[in-house]
Amino acid sequence: MTGQVRTVDGRVAGRRGQATRQKLLDCLSEMLSSSPYRDVKVIDVARKAGTSPATFYQYFPDVEGAVLEVAEQMATEGGQLTQLLDGRSWVGKAGWQTAQELVDGFLEFWRKNDAILRVVDLGAAEGDKRFYKIRMKILNSVNNSLADAVAELQAKGRVDKDVNPAAVAGSLVAMLAAVASHQKGFQTWGVKQAELKPNLALLVHLGVTGKKPTK
Amino acid sequence: MTGQVRTVDGRVAGRRGQATRQKLLDCLSEMLSSSPYRDVKVIDVARKAGTSPATFYQYFPDVEGAVLEVAEQMATEGGQLTQLLDGRSWVGKAGWQTAQELVDGFLEFWRKNDAILRVVDLGAAEGDKRFYKIRMKILNSVNNSLADAVAELQAKGRVDKDVNPAAVAGSLVAMLAAVASHQKGFQTWGVKQAELKPNLALLVHLGVTGKKPTK
DNA sequence: CACTTGTCCTGTCATGCCGTCAGCTTACCG
DNA sequence: CGGTAAGCTGACGGCATGACAGGACAAGTG
Questions:
Q1: N or C end of chain A: which has fewer CB within 10 A?
Q2: CATH of domain B74-209
Q3: How far is the CA of B140 from the C1' of D12 (A)?
Q4: What is the pLDDT of residues B90-149, one digit of tens each?
Q5: Is residue B52's beta carbon less than 7 angstroms from any atom in nucleic acid strand D?
Q6: The three-state (H, E, C) secondary structure of chain B, written as one string
């Protein structure tokens, strides 16, 4: 799809080059987890990777460029999130389970990639289309499936006609993403991780079906 | 409460000093709106304020310190958000109106302060307790009111016992904040601002009362 | 083995921002 | 008018940035 990996000055990267490139990306990922985005410097990433800043600039235009790469890789993995919803039912007990598994899978994915997702969120909120597109790529799979589910229930008359499936789905997905980003924040409100999940699932179920789940 | 405003080196700031200090904060605010957080430099803020970098460092330890100040000022204004919920009813048509006005007021506040709120969100997500506290200060008022409303309905038996009021309220508030941050994103999903609001209100109403609103 | 080719890395350098200090200017007060 | 404290800035060492040319290295060739 993306063709060969190329250096900034146009050379094609060989085996060794790709290895160092990936090492730089991995080290960048680690840095993002351990220090504020604003303080991540090229020189630190390079040092951590046991190489020099000049090498970094051979593969990436700047820190942001490398971050986009990390984000892209994560977004590709994130495509698996569709599986949480493909072919699931929103009716009866199965519906409750669908909601629970969606919440579970979503939070888990976010927890695993929280550092890079923070930055993607920031970039998207700042209006950067590249980050925005990546955020879409991750959320779209879940969002579309949710919107379809709402639209389907709507067609059967089980959901009010004036509900906008895309708006509801988007809001629910945004909620999941936001809660995942600030999981620690809930502890201050006296809410433990284990308690949080069923309540989130409840909200998702309510939003999609308009009704309380049968457990 | 906070006593006198002091410079970094301990002098008390007079009228003139406070003016330049505030001017620096205002210019910082503008910069945050127009360029990515990562690219906001002390020298740019100082230039924009018609002063020198050295002056900046007289009032703030660094960019982050100044950002915290801006955020603090905004958080104080944000206390007004409580008014959106104080003494409101969640029953019948009034309940629907309460939900609508909450969504309206919340989105408006976020739209007005989106730049600084982005940064606060980032800081909080990165685990910085100072930003985290400010985010709390803003959200707590809304969150507590919502949680109280849920708990009250729960006491009357109108909401299931296994619902955790704080978890539900927190999730709804997080949803509002996230949607507000990414309002532009919804346009890609074909959802217009005007359509978004009632659907958000619906989700809030569903979350708080467990039932569809009577319009 | 010497030679060539193309990939890969780094030393070095000009540039620009950071953060501090000493010292100058301005405002206020007796 | 002189003293004192507030207010501001030029200047400087330090460090990150980003570009380049050249050296190191692996692999193939005669």
A1: N
A2: 1.10.357.10
A3: 47
A4: 999 999 999 999 999 999 999 999 999 999 999 999 999 999 999 999 999 899 999 999
A5: yes
A6: CCCCCECCCCCECCHHHHHHHHHHHHHHHHHHHHCCHHHCCHHHHHHHCCCCHHHHHHHCCCHHHHHHHHHHHHHHHHHHHHHHCCCCCCCHHHHHHHHHHHHHHHHHHHHHCHHHHHHHHHHHHCCCHHHHHHHHHHHHHHHHHHHHHHHHHHHCCCCCCCCCHHHHHHHHHHHHHHHHHCHHHHHHCCCCHHHHHHHHHHHHHHHHHCCCCCC
